[in-house]
């Protein structure tokens, strides 16, 4: 593949989907602001039922996707995949999944400009707006991205379930924690889940899918013109 082909390939498989997801995120945020959903009632109900046990549990749940942790964990996982698999593909995939959701989040959250829920916030409010939840999208991108790489190396439903169960529970725990602690509305969390999943799927399609395509192309038998025979 020439350099021009590579640029075209990544523009189609990474850049274009990111632009579309950013546009969809902005559109969804605009729609949420245009048509109030009454989500503040849920935030108030959760705030009214807070207790010390859940406060501590959600503090831990929210920290699973704090930015310094996600950055450090992504770097460690990328290095680990490189050393383990002796190639960069899986590492690049994980970094692309995590950072693409971060770029889309940063490009859209200020433009949407949604205020935080009207309850006491149990965490310091970052300067970004409430929509979408960057904590949740980062959690999906990192934990599900790691699980996707690991499950390509194991066989058996039990092993895959053991990998995917915590990978799915972690973003859900982050989402509930952010909701409980008054940092996000429900739609912020739901869109964060969708955004993270979209970035994982995009990076997997663009980066993890390519070797299989090349192998299948290389393994395809060549039919010699006029001979009617296939060369190995």
TrEMBL record:
Its EC number is 3.6.1.27. Residues 91-204 form the Phosphatidic acid phosphatase type 2/haloperoxidase domain. InterPro entries: PAP2/HPO, PAP2/HPO_sf. Keywords: Hydrolase, Membrane, Transmembrane, Transmembrane helix. The keyword Cytoplasm does not apply. Pfam families: PAP2. It is an enzyme of class 3 (hydrolase). One of its GO terms (molecular function) is undecaprenyl-diphosphatase activity. It comes from the Bacteria. The chain crosses the membrane at residues 12-35, 67-85, 92-112, 132-150, 157-177, 189-208. This is Undecaprenyl-diphosphatase. It comes from Nonomuraea rubra.
């Amino acid at each position: 593949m020439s350099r021009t082909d590579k640029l075209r390939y990544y523009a189609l498989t990474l850049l274009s989907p990111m632009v579309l997801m950013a546009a969809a995120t902005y559109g969804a945020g605009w729609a949420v602001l245009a048509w109030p959903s009454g989500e503040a009632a849920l935030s108030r109900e959760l705030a009214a039922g807070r207790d010390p046990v859940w406060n501590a549990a959600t503090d831990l749940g929210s920290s699973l996707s704090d930015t310094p942790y996600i950055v450090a964990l992504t770097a460690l996982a990328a290095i680990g995949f490189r050393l383990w698999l002796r190639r960069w593909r899986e590492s690049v995939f994980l970094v692309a999944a995590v950072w693409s959701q971060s770029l889309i989040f940063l490009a859209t959250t200020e433009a949407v400009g949604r205020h935080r829920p009207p309850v006491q916030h149990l965490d310091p409010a970052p300067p970004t707006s409430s929509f979408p939840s960057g904590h949740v999208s980062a959690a999906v991108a990192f934990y599900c991205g790691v699980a996707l790489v690991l499950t390509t190396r194991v066989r058996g439903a039990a092993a895959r379930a053991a990998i995917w169960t915590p990978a799915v529970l972690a973003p859900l725990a982050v989402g509930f924690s952010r909701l409980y602690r008054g940092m996000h509305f429900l739609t912020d969390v739901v869109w964060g889940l969708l955004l993270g999943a979209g970035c994982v799927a995009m990076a997997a399609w663009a980066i993890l899918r390519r070797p299989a395509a090349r192998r299948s192309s290389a393994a395809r038998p060549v039919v010699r013109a006029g001979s009617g025979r296939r060369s190995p």
